[in-house]
UniProtKB/TrEMBL annotation:
InterPro entries: N1-like, Ribonuclease/ribotoxin. One of its GO terms (molecular function) is RNA binding. Keywords: Hydrolase, Nuclease, Signal. SUPFAM superfamilies: Microbial ribonucleases. Residues 1-22 form the signal peptide. This is Ribonuclease N. The lineage of its organism: Bacteria, Bacillati, Actinomycetota, Actinomycetes, Kitasatosporales.
């Protein structure tokens, strides 16, 4: 049984190395309507264009690019990446920002996580999953 698992793992590694599995850019799955290549920092994540995000997320992205002001006190705080879903970086590399959700009385579940190297990630489920965000 252990031998079969090892053989299967080795075969998967060989296929990955040959480019038979996964996406050639190693940058995740591009948005179906996007012709943009997946950036290297998006490895393993679905990639979406900012135009495909909710209006509130696009507003948050604009505020991040402009340096604020931000509507929530916790906006700009360090995101620890404790879930391990984003590429591993030193503490302080990632900052989180609230994406308001219409009808929510609190901050809701939607966030933009911004990296120090201008990478952007969107989560609509409070860090259960992320999409890499590219701007056309």
């Amino acid at each position: 049984m252990l031998r079969r698992i090892l053989v299967a793992l080795l075969a998967a590694v060989a296929l990955l190395s040959a480019g038979c599995i996964g996406n050639e850019s190693r940058g995740g799955t591009p948005d179906a309507n996007s012709s943009l290549p997946s950036p290297g920092w998006a490895e393993g994540l679905t990639v979406v264009t900012s135009a495909k995000l909710p209006e509130q997320a696009r507003t948050t992205l604009r505020l991040i690019d402009e340096g604020g002001p931000f509507p929530y006190e916790k906006d700009g705080s360090v995101f620890g990446n404790y879930e391990g879903l984003l590429p591993r970086q030193d503490r302080g590399h990632y900052r989180e920002y609230t994406v308001p959700t219409p009808g929510e009385r609190d901050r809701g579940a939607r966030r933009i996580v911004a990296g120090a190297d201008r990478e952007r990630y969107y989560t609509s489920d409070h860090y259960e999953s992320f999409k890499a965000v590219v701007t056309p």
